[in-house]
Amino acid sequence: ITKQIFDRASKIFFVSQGNLNIAKRHLYSHLNNAVVVRNPVNILNTEVVAYPKTNVIHFANIGRYTINYKGQDILFEVFSSEKWKSREWQLHLYGEGPDEKYLRELSKFYQLDSRIIFEGYVNDIRNVWANNHILLMPSIGEGTPLAMVEAMICGRPCVMTDVAGHREWVNEGINGFIAESPSVRYFDAALERAWNKRQDWYQMGLNAHETAIKQYDPHCGETILKYLHDHL
Question: Which of 136, 166, 149 is nearest to 43 (CA)?
Fold first, then answer.
């Protein structure tokens, strides 16, 4: 039934080519009526945010506290190793959601509660990036996350998992880092590569900004309305 609905639709919208490819595989259909569009970005000022000048590295994770999709628990386990505990860093979690209590208890279990700060939901994304150096997203499932696009627009590199549309935006070692899968092993390896190149994060952030400005759609609502108008 799902395949029939998709095949009969005038247009089907996806927010990444990666999601479209998955749908083609699941539905064994070319989906010639499909279009990749951009999500709206909640940023009016698209200039690079000044890079924080602190000796302590500040990591940011932005997203709903739902570990089955966002994988924050993977990130906590990565940071629980003695290697990471010996380094100077803080992790700031921005968001809210049903798994907050679990994540707070998990941070205590790993003895990271002094390192991990639950910031809650925030509206001012530029202020987030005025205080953080790099985005960490150990996501298990995504489309094209706004948190990634907004971080890149603000001039910050990202460490992402290889799901959905992340590789369409992030180039390994150029404007960020890609973990081969959403697992502790692979995310730790990607984060280690990032840590070893942290002196390059500022330039990588500028590269990320350049990529995002080219790829995001500042008028995505109008774009979708035009597609709908043309097929009514």
Answer: 149
Q: How many angstroms separate the CA atoms of 69 and 210, rounded?
A: 28
Coil, strand or helix at 228: helix
Model pLDDT for residues 92-123, shown as the tens digit of each residue: 999 999 999 999 999 999 999 999 999 999 99
Bridge partners (DSSP) listed for residue 91: 59, 116
Residues in Cβ contact with 72 at an 8 Å cutoff, skipping those fewer than 6 apart: 61, 63, 65, 93, 99, 103, 138
Could you give phi then psi for residue 85, rounded to 5 degrees? -65, -20
Pairwise CA distance, residues 149 & 216, whole Å: 8
CA-wise closest residue to 96 among 127, 67, 120: 120
Question: Considering the chain, what is the average pLDDT of its residues?
Answer: 92
pTM: 0.90
